[in-house]
Specification:
The chain is an alpha/beta fold. Helices cover about 50% and strands about 10% of the residues. The protein contains ten helices and six strands, in the order ααβαβαααβαββααβα.
């Protein structure tokens, strides 16, 4: 049984690598271009509507989950608790989280898709302690490939266009007006997805803030369209601190003309170390592990995010 599941994992990983850009390209060919045009027209129409001068601008927080996510309306318990704490800390926020960042059309792995039957069968093993790690590994690999699609200059613009359209429709349905602010909060690989989408949202005239929580992202052109960029990172998070600059040259200090380094030079971007956190596991951002001062990692992370979001909502 274990050998069979290992073969399934390896086969799925290889197949996912080969077809990772296909979903985005098929979406664009079949309906993506039309949907993007419709979304652009909707936004332009909204921009032309007379604004309400008496209305206080709102802040929409769009949460983009990490690579362990597999559905658009199912997030990990710790992430769900995080969003509740952020809502309590900044009551004026409008929080949107029903976005699956690793699919161009917002379809979760267990939704109505050709591979949905396989993912639903595979997800059934998540409840078995012995095989849960295998399920998580396959999902993580599959989603990492989608992050790389977002980074790839050949396919990334299409992928990011789909994500931006999903974000636009959700903030529109929640009552967005042109004077409002959109904060893209990306955790881990979700940060790269947010950076890509920022290109289209900012180009349309939206006031966009990019907020990274241990984010792994490259010097995406979308960072050029962000009014503020805040990168919150743990001192022991080697993935966010060292791995991202290693694999993404634009994040290195000496590449002065990259979008990331220009944002730093212009004062639009800040990197802030918030604690001795690892990327995942015990001692990570959303962990309940106690620090020497008595607070949990989770509490320190929430406090740092609330501080930044409070500043954005003023």
């Amino acid at each position: 049984m274990i050998e069979g599941l290992v073969l399934v994992v390896l086969g799925t990983a290889a197949l996912a690598w080969l077809v990772s850009p296909v979903e985005s390209l098929v979406w664009w060919e079949r309906r993506g271009a039309r949907e993007m045009e419709a979304a652009a027209q909707e936004y332009l129409a909204a921009m032309d509507e007379p604004g309400d001068a008496s209305r206080t601008p709102r802040t929409f927080l769009v949460y983009l989950s990490g690579i362990a996510a597999f559905d658009d309306n199912l997030i990990a318990r710790a992430e769900s608790l995080l969003l509740r704490r952020l809502q309590e800390g900044v009551p004026e926020l409008t929080i949107l989280h029903e976005i699956y960042p690793y699919a161009v059309d917002n379809r979760g792995l267990i939704d109505d898709r050709r591979s949905g039957r396989f993912w639903r069968w595979f997800a059934g093993w998540q409840g078995h302690k012995r095989f849960a790690a295998l399920f998580n590994l396959v999902v993580n690999i599959r989603n990492v490939y989608q992050v790389m699609v977002s980074v790839d200059p050949r396919y990334g613009p299409v992928f990011s266009a789909g994500i931006a359209q999903t974000i636009w429709r959700q903030v529109r349905d929640a009552g967005y007006a042109p004077q409002d602010r959109i904060v893209l909060l990306g955790w881990s690989g979700g940060a790269q997805i947010g950076a890509g989408a920022a290109w289209y949202l900012g180009a349309a005239g939206a006031h966009v803030t990019f907020l990274s929580m241990g984010g792994i992202f490259h010097a995406d052109p979308g960072l050029e369209r962000c009014e503020r960029i805040i990168h919150l990172v743990g001192t022991r998070d080697w993935q966010a601190r060292w791995f991202a600059p290693l694999v993404f040259p634009g994040r290195r200090r000496w590449v002065k003309r990259s979008s990331w380094n220009r944002a730093l030079a212009e004062g639009r971007a800040t990197q802030r170390f918030i604690g001795p956190f690892k990327h995942v596991g015990r001692g990570s951002y959303l962990s309940g592990k106690r620090l020497p001062g008595g607070e949990s990692c989770f509490a320190v992370t929430v406090a740092a995010l609330v501080e930044e979001l409070t500043a954005e909502s003023r």
